[in-house]
Amino acid sequence: MKCFNYPLYIRSVPSQNELKFHYTVHTSLDVVEEKVSAVGKSIGDQRELYLGLLYPTEDYKVYGYVTNSKVKFVIVVDSSNTSLRDNEIRSMFRKLHNSFTDVMCNPFYNPGDPIQSKAFNGIVSGMMVQTG
Amino acid sequence: MAFLSELKQDTQNALKYYRAAYSLVHELRAHETNMLEIKTMAGFINYKICRLCFQHNTPLDAIAQFRKHIDLCKKKIGSAELAFEHSAWMSKQFQSFGELFDEAIKLGLTAIQTQNPGFYYQQAACYSQDRKQMAQQLCQAGTTYPSPDPLDTQSGGLDFYGQRPWRQGHQSIDPTDPEKEKMGILALQIKERDVPHSELIIALLSNAVAQFKKYKCPRMKSHLMVQMGEEYYHAKDYTKALKLLDYVMCDYRTERWWPLLTAILTTALRCAYLMASVKDYIIYCMELLGRASTLKEEQKSRIEKNLFKVLMNKVPEAEAECDPSSVSAARSLWSDRMALSGSNELTVEMQDYIPFIQCKARFQSPSFHVDQPIQLQVFLRADCPHPVSFTKLSVSLSNQEYNQWCVVEPSGPETRTLSPWKPESYSFSFVARTEDVGRKVEITGVEVMLGSDGGRCVFLSWRGAGGDAASTQEALQASRSSRRWGRGAEARQEPDWDGVTLQHSTMIISRVPKISVQLSHQPPALSNEMYRIGLTVQSQEDAVARDVRLTAGLKPGQEAGLGQNTHVTLDGSAVCDDSAPALLTEVPLGDLKPGEQLQTCVFVRCVSTGPRVFLFHVAYSIDTAVEGRRIVCRCHKDETVAVETVVPFDVSVKFVSTKFEPLEQVAVDVPFLLMTDVLSSSPWPLLLSSSQLQLLTVTSNTPQLQSQLQQVVLQTGEGASECFCLRVPPGASSNSTMATGQYILSWRRKCYGSDGPLIQTTVPLPHVVLESVPLYIYADLPSFGRVRESLPVRYHIENRTAQLQEVEIAVDPSDAFMFSGLKQVRLRVLPGTEQALLYNFYPLMAGYQTLPQLSLSLPHCPTASGTALRRFLPQRIFVKPQGRQADDASIAAA
Lengths: 132, 894
Hints:
Chain A: It comes from Cyprinodon variegatus. Chain A: It holds the Pfam family Sedlin_N. Chain A: This is Trafficking protein particle complex subunit 2-like protein. Chain A: It is found in: Cytoplasm, Perinuclear region. The structure holds 2 protein chains of 2 kinds. Chain A is an alpha+beta fold. Chain A has a single domain, classed as Beta-Lactamase (2-Layer Sandwich), CATH 3.30.450.70. Chain A has 3 helices and 5 strands. Chain A has a 5-stranded antiparallel beta sheet, sandwiched between helices. In chain A, a hairpin with a 3-residue loop joins β1 and β2. By secondary structure, chain B is an alpha+beta fold. Chain B has 18 helices and 41 strands. In chain B, the strands form 10 sheets. In chain B, strands 1, 3, 5, 6, 7, 9, 10 and 11 form an 8-stranded mixed beta sheet that branches. In chain B, α5 packs antiparallel against α6 and α11 packs antiparallel against α12. The longest helix of chain B has 24 residues. Chain B is elongated. At the A-B interface, α1 and β3 of A face α6, α9, α11 and α15 of B.
């Protein structure tokens, strides 16, 4: 799940409550923006892409990741899912980022269009299955 | 214990005891029956703990404690029938914690974006919503309130908080009286039904909104406002719901998060339907049909049908998921609305929405000549599943007069139809008015009329040249992709919708002139000269160019001082003065027949050097016809020329003595020479007509001062010199500087011939430093000598002082001369008189020979040394060899 302040790609595994996730991801952008602007002021370019846990809700944990070109990735997981440590999330983001880079390298892809890449889709599905 | 400590203000201890009590409560065996009791107690104690934590300024402890509390209690739902009670309790917990947090903040605690009371209020609201849902599910059974009231306790209060009133006094875990238990639960359920859930939720949400506003979470805020809107909708307060939803819709529209926007729009549409608000209904329909909506095709087609029903003044079908009772109410509202005949015209501003008809208008070109018809295209595209017909399309322009040509009103019953996803284009063309030349024509709006006068008509109005809330971003995307696929798009027949760019204004420019303007001149210009620029205007028009006018001169907008240093005139016969302007405007040149040619000259005088740009602007009027209309156009042609101005020549002046030795000081009443050198630096030959010396104080030694430079032509790099013999008149004070005068040259370019005016260039002469000499000595001697012929030399010694001067003179011998005269003499010169000494020199050798030197000394006047005086005397003389008269004679004889 990720976005450009408007979503390029959104997937959720239990698809029945998708609207709620849309809202969750959308609201998490508040925190992403705040974090990105705060970091930009102090350190400059040496920015950690992984933003960590964005904010806790009762039911979900929202993690954020922002690339250098300000493309935002957001992962929302169930807060009861304790098997996912920070490191796993980190590696998931890295995987997502790599895959996204591949998508961007596609000469037929027009930056800013919704992502319809099968490979990207496959990676995301793989991660979702893995996390259960 | 803890309470006591608290009363004693020993807060640290109180906290410790409260913590102990809290763990004790949780150690109690929890069962369905006493669950509420335990939770109530835990809640109280937790509240106390958190409050104390905040008081101790350890908010993290408070938050951790609260989390623990919630995690522990979350699962303790209690009896299934009264699950709403649990939700209510949870909600209460969150709310009170939020309030505590808020209070703490007011007392100076700083919260952050991700940890502020808003979250707790939000969660409280969330549980309230759960509560409402459960209540709706569970509380349908009971219809009559049981009597006797099981909640009514005789004592009027409960012994312990959280105990069931009907179970007071029982200690055992098993329910004592199942019948009584059932009655009690039913009573509670019925009571729950009367609780104004929505109001509670809205209150909590608005609290949360206020908090999030404070902590810069605009998106969170919008989300909550959506929830509030939905809650108002459930509470059937549709006006408020619409107001809130409308407010946040803009945010989501700018965020371009279409699924969310669609969800909100759907709710809003339901509200509008239930309120029977025609305008809102139409707007939401249009936006839901638009490309931003993520609704499925069949839903879209249903909405579109509804929309057309409204346009035909019929009642639309009910929206799905509406309360049946409200639907019937709405239906009657709608039919009332429809029965009202008036106010069936509606204007909707499109740029705030993402409507289902897209509009793009453009002028074919960013500028049109006034003799061309202006072409305007409007593209329309419908994004809805069914074809749409409109009744009228009109474009309004910044000049109202053109609007009449920009209306499409289909004649007859057939209306213009827009097929889904197929762009249609409508072209207009009109003739610009001649007054509008140089002005911009802008599209101020495009209006499409849907529906008919009989039913209801809606004017979709786009401000400017079309485009809506989403189209700028789309245009950006399109430009990115067209950069890659540009060639492919051109090949396609159908106009590519994304490739159509808006051109909302056009410039009306004057007609292309069909005349040629040629300039002939010889750059560079020489400073101060009357620089001639020839102008040839040749007409290539088919008709007579009338009222030809010329504007010529320095192009405006150059360096500031140039205007004062440049003078333009048409009269080349005389040098113009400083009053001539830098730009001649609107010089009438008469009419110009087809093919005719017109010549004129402009003279420019540049006082300072440097580059200049001159503008030649030829304007005329001509009659022409555009699409059958006769118009008079004014055309103009501009020609610019850059001219460098250079100095024509350099003049250097120096003073030398009569022996051509440079002088630093000029002695009073002693002749000296003034040398002038004129060095031409002009690339063109110059004719120096004459020169003139204007002297101040200094007088000329020659009675008739004549120019030696009459009619001299100088090529580039050539020089001309003059020499004048001057004398400072006696009486001038010594050791002072004195102005000598000025040197005036009259000249012109040779190529301009005799008709060009002569230019006077004045060169000021340098000042001289004067000195006075006590004794002046000069020699009278012939210009040359001859070997072995006597050479008489007379030395004059002049006493310029008021005293008697004694002079000792000795003549040094020289190899080249024999001489006769006084070898050594001592003489006295009376004041103001002169003495003459005569010598006869007899040259022995030919060529330049050094004369025998006179050594002078003034024993009584040490200031004037002999050497100082010697500079006045000639040093050498040319001696010619002896003539051979005899040989000459013999040659003549032979």
